From TrEMBL:
One of its GO terms (molecular function) is alanine-tRNA ligase activity. It comes from the Bacteria. This is alanine--tRNA ligase. Keywords: Aminoacyl-tRNA synthetase, ATP-binding, Ligase, Nucleotide-binding, Protein biosynthesis, RNA-binding, tRNA-binding. SMART domains: tRNA_SAD. GO terms for cellular component: cytoplasm. Residues 1-608 form the Alanyl-transfer RNA synthetases family profile domain. Its EC number is 6.1.1.7.
Amino acid sequence: MTASTIRQKYLAFFKAKDHQIIPPAPLVPADDPTTLFTNSGMQPLVPYLKGQIHPMGRRLVDSQPCFRAEDIDEVGDNRHTTFFEMLGNWSLGDYFKQDQLPWFWEFLTHELKLPKARLYISLFKGSSQVPRDQESLKVWKKLGVPENKIYWYEAKKNWWSRAGTPEEMPEGEIGGPTSEVFFEFDSVDHNTKYGKACHPNCDCGRFLEIGNTVFMEYEKTKQGLKKLPAQNVDFGGGLERLTAASQNQPDIFQIELFSEAVKNLEVVKKSGPAYNQDPLPYRVIVDHLRAAVFMAAGGVEPSNKDRGYILRRLIRRSMVQARKLGMEQDEWLSNTLPLLASPYTKTYPLIDKKIPEINQTITQEIDKFRQTITRGLKEFNKTSPNQINERFAFKSLATYGMPFEITQELAQQRGIKLDKGVFDEYVKKHQDLSRTVSTGMFKGGLADHSEATTKLHTATHLLHAALKKVLGDHVRQEGSHITAERLRFDFAHPRVLADEEIKKVEDLVNQKITEDLPVKKTIEAKNQALKSGAMAFFKETYPDKVTVYTVGRDLNQGWFSKEFCGGPHVTSTGKIGSVRIYKQKNLGAGLRRLYARLNHGNHQSIDQNQGRTQ
């Protein structure tokens, strides 16, 4: 059964059980300053799992593209990928264990026709704060799962939150115990280096996790875990893994989403091992390039920080592995990219639409990397052998972007052995320093609902409306990013804004703040909301019912701003204070970027030397 068929079957199965199909969230979140990419299906649903009413109801289902940067170094085995598609269904205070577990079992055994004898279950064994999950045990046994195929694990394995175990969860994070389903590939022999006995959570490759139901019942507080207002179900199942199980294929990279690209690499490689001799280079290339396709389609450009750094790292790691296969020219790239993109063009039309831009983004980065390697080689060749060590390798990475694997190849030619563990220590020290500087960015992707961020979120709506009134109706939002310190707003406009225009926009925003206009939330039919003049971020796909925030005295006639949005917002504009636009930037291709922050009494321009334009 193909991945496309499984995706369709899953959505149809839960639709028949009164679930509403919701569109996937963008891989690159628009308004969440604390996470770089959508890393799970539940990430956009956090407010609703905490009790907010979802416009589409209490039963939801979708297929969500996800990316997890923490899995980059795991790619190379038979199952880990950085980018994946997560099939998800949710109960927001509706059904619970007695419905969810039988439904998923039915989907696996009837829809996918997986043999029951090959399915294993894991459950949460309990802790000092949360009891052992006896209720789920009863459900599984009632479904006919023998007790010898049910395994109990601690929180490290059978508790889910985006931050990890209950001890690792920050305040405000939600989570709960899990019940996972594993598929056994009986053709794979257990490798004793992973332990004497095999079990579902063994890393030998015999078992594959294919579904994880989180019973989302808890929120972390200063006092510890507290129960959420309602019992929620949060299910996630990797599409790639479900496909591998349905095909009885223990190697994810041999399913149709990857297999043609792998075959192509074997054809165009100039040297190096075949896939069955050493699959790692092939797996890294196809995984990383597939992720790069989705990132580039989402507008990410390679750079040295944040999302751009991740994209750059993926592309460059792909090229390092391509060099191991003797592939220096772009033939491997031009042939491989279409094979990785084609399975998604019907489901995600943006991929098909942006193929030229995707090609250009990735090709340009590969050209830059070649120049980087050239500079790194010059530095290596003029360095004396006694100075070539792990510290030199780290410096080459930090200064020239030279990957450790290339420095290590070069060092071996001079008879010098570099220790990857020692090199990793230098990298870790650097990463720890970076985390200290950017504390809060990666707290499991938890949305930042601080007072300052909430004010700036509402100010973004005022800014969008003011730009349209000052510059014209052609202004269209192209992206935004909000932190507690500032807002960043990207929009379509053909030219640089004059300082006088910026002042008009700023004055209008602050006028509406001074008027202390009410900010009201409604749930409306999407088409009706659009007809009424509500603005939407058109890079996103919205469900049939949407949450709308209106700023103004009269929802029908006198409103100043009306936009699709999930919040959070202040209750009236007077709570914002005042806003200062301090910089604009040209993004090219008819796009502009404005930066603004809350004005704390300093009325001087931040960019006094250059005005407000860059």
